[in-house]
Amino acid sequence: NNEGEKQILNSQIPVTTDRHSDNSHLALQAKHTEQHEGRLYNIPLEELSAVFPHGLPHRFQQQVLTFNEARVMVRKPALELLAYLKGSNFSHPAVRYVIYGERGTGKTMTLCHVVHYCSRQGWLVLHIPDAHLWVKNCKELLQSSYNKDRLDQPLQASVWLKNFKASNERFLQEIKTQKKYMWGKRECTEEGRPLREVVEQGLARVRSASDAVGVLLRELKQQSHRGSFRLLVAVDGVNALWGRSTLRKEDKSPVCPEELTLVHNLRKMLMNDWSGGAIVTTLSQTGSLFKPSSAYTPQELLGKEGFDALDPFVPIPVPNYSPKEFESCYGYYLERRWLQHEKGQGWGGKRGMRVLGLELVSSKWAKKLDKLNTDFCTHRDAQSFAVPSVSLQGPRTFPPCASGLISSVCPCTPRVST
Amino acid sequence: MVTAPRLPELQECLENSLRDAQGGIVGVSVQAQQRSGQSPGCSEQSRPCGVQRGRSGRVRPAGPGPCRPPSRRAGPWAERGGAGMAARAGRCCRAGLSCGALLSPALLSPAVLSRAPATPRWGRAAFSSAPAVSGREGPQAREGSVRRRGRTLQFVRSAAPPRTERMAVDQDWSSVYPTAAAFKPASVPLPIRMGYPVKGGVPPPKEGNLELIKIPNFLHLTPPAIKKHCAALKDFCTEWPSALDSDEKCEQHFPIEIETVDYVSSGTSIRNPKARVVTLRVKLSSLNLDDHAKKKLIKLVGERYCQETDVLTITTDRCPLRRQNYDYSMHLLTVLYHESWKTEKWESEKSEEDMEEYVWENSHSQKNALDTLLRIKASENVSNVTKEELLASEVVKNYRNSVIALKNEGETESNISQYKESVKKLLNIQA
């Protein structure tokens, strides 16, 4: 059966079901080039939980659970970014990259791909999964003890510190503080202590979690130029930092984002006055506040203030799936038995395919998909697959993954010679 | 079908009926009486005689045509003589005979039959006229025919052929429509259709088409008609100056255009309050303004300036007389011009938000770019690089242009990719 599949799929899609080269991808990832475009590569699950305690899109997480494997598609924007990172000069100030694109095209997955690459390469990854979470729906706002005008967000800060600790244990041990920090009246962290203590202080005393985050960012920024580690600042939904917030103070007056400690410190981190790393950010309209749903370009989402703050940056557009990528994704789903074909039970393959791929597929491709499907059906016996029911939530949802995913889900091992 | 010969009794009865007319219902009731004599039921039942019966004998409602008022005068009948009368009678009789359900043949036939031999009142005229009458389909066949409509008789005007059939191709159209008039289908020799089409059909034709009559038409303003108007007005005009033979020259010598409207209407008063409105239009390029003055003037006038055509439009109507409004608009223009040349003290507080377009100099973008470049140079241990040098360098100029394009023209794919390239060059990023 596998052979049969390969025969059909070989001609159109460079996707294999070959599991043997699973482990070879680790070395391969560095060698991802244009020829791998459209292919899907595998991330072992234990590594996934280590690198991504937070930050993966929800639908992708669901897919990982369903298929029991994490496959990320190699796409052009990610390859471009990786090329820039490989060739960047780390003595120069950090370059800012802004990934932008329409909804559901794969910006977050591109970011995750880059984060995975950098963590594989041994960088220290400062990954803020969604900056929008810091400007909305905060239950607790405390007045900052460090600066009377600012507001602390203990819950958000502690959650982030926990995840950060999970992904960067090694570094927290190695990097030492350069200053003495006083937490309140009695506690302090001496100079020369590992940063882990700062993080634990933040986790233990939730009231000072935001200040702990601030200290952490400051330390990393100051020490990155030395070259002992490379720093990657990855922020998803960076337009939240320069937008508006829905938070209100006790007197019901609205809160500006810069009055929040976390946002203030992160903004300082995104300035290019440090070197020894890179800043990769994503714009996101989903989850943004007071932005029209059709907005996706940098100026629209960042606004004047954000643009001036991030300028000069390298904009990286992320388009929808190309036909090749779509076929790859489709083939992966077929291979995983996620898509049912028309001879089986469930919704018809042709009709379903057309609905699913609406945004991505022209009629020419729909016909091709039909042909693919029929080929598949004729070669296999008409079996009914017990596939979980598909919820067609919109043109861009490929079950079980949704939004960002059509673009980058379904990894498969590339057929790469090692 | 050959009609039965008219009973002479019937003819005579009709002639006699005029003399003893009863109210308005002369023909029917009397005829009924005459016909069946003692059966009053016939008088009511003969009412459907108004329904025209053709040769086929089917009931056919009276065809479309001008509704003729039932003529109740007995006079014309007597004048026209027995022929018309007989026709009426014959038809009625036939109708009466063929609507069998309504009329009881028992009532009719013996009555008629009994009448037949007794009094040969129907003349030859009746006999001869009957077939002619029986051939008639509609009410309007020929001159002087009388049509029965219900209980009354109507005169049917014959329909003359429309005037369009007699129109020559090279006629003088302005005499057909000398003034604005409603659309007359018989006067317009065009096969126009207008309206919502019947399913599977075409829009209705122009005859009796209310849609065409309702709408305004310009049939009175064809080019030859307008030529005639101009010829008539020419006596009141002077020659166009020969030196102004192009638009540019007009623009150059007469940059200000004044527009006023005169209103004429039929009524008791020649005054119209709308006539006092004066519109002044001028192009700002023809005014002597420097950059600051132009921006200030545009800010002062606001909505009245059109960016695309560079035209300032001032409309005045606050004074009661046109002369006064004209003077006021000229005064406004003068004041605007002089005020825009002045610079007030508070104009120095003009901030970035007030700027009409993006200026890169002294902007955040310039500051960021310079800072970044200085840091890059510092990291490479290259000192003695001045800001002016940096600003004058090619990459910075490129970057500046791309940022200006991005801000002023908005974000397009090409703009963004141009910006991306310029940033890559600026920061020296290699792929």
TrEMBL record, chain A:
Its protein name is Small ribosomal subunit protein mS29
List the gene name.
DAP3
Chief localization: mitochondrion
Tell me the protein family, please.
Answer: Belongs to the mitochondrion-specific ribosomal protein mS29 family.
Drop me one GO molecular function for this one.
structural constituent of ribosome
Q: Please provide one cellular component term from the Gene Ontology annotations of this protein.
A: mitochondrial small ribosomal subunit
Q: Would you say which domain of life the source belongs to? A: Eukaryota
Q: Does the keyword Transmembrane apply?
A: no
- In its UniProt record, which GO terms are filed under biological process? apoptotic process
The record's InterPro entries line, in alphabetical order, gives: P-loop_NTPase (IPR027417), Ribosomal_mS29 (IPR019368), Ribosomal_mS29_met (IPR008092)
Signal sequence span is: none
Q: Where in the cell is it found?
A: Mitochondrion
Q: Does the keyword rRNA-binding apply?
A: no
Q: Which UniProt keywords apply?
A: Mitochondrion, Ribonucleoprotein, Ribosomal protein, Transit peptide
TrEMBL record, chain B:
Bias (Polar residues): 31-46
Identification of the protein by name: Mitochondrial ribosomal protein S35
| PANTHER family attached to this UniProt entry | MITOCHONDRIAL 28S RIBOSOMAL PROTEIN S28, SMALL RIBOSOMAL SUBUNIT PROTEIN MS35
Pfam families, A to Z:
MRP-S28
Q: Which is an annotated GO molecular function term of this record? A: structural constituent of ribosome
Q: Tell me which species this is from.
A: Catharus ustulatus (Russet-backed thrush)
Q: Give the span(s) annotated as Disordered.
A: 31-80, 129-150
Q: Where does the secretion signal sit in this chain?
A: none
The record's Gene Ontology cellular component field reads: mitochondrial small ribosomal subunit
Q: Could you tell me the Gene Ontology terms of the biological process aspect for this record?
A: mitochondrial translation
> Domain named Small ribosomal subunit protein mS35 mitochondrial conserved: which ranges?
269-343
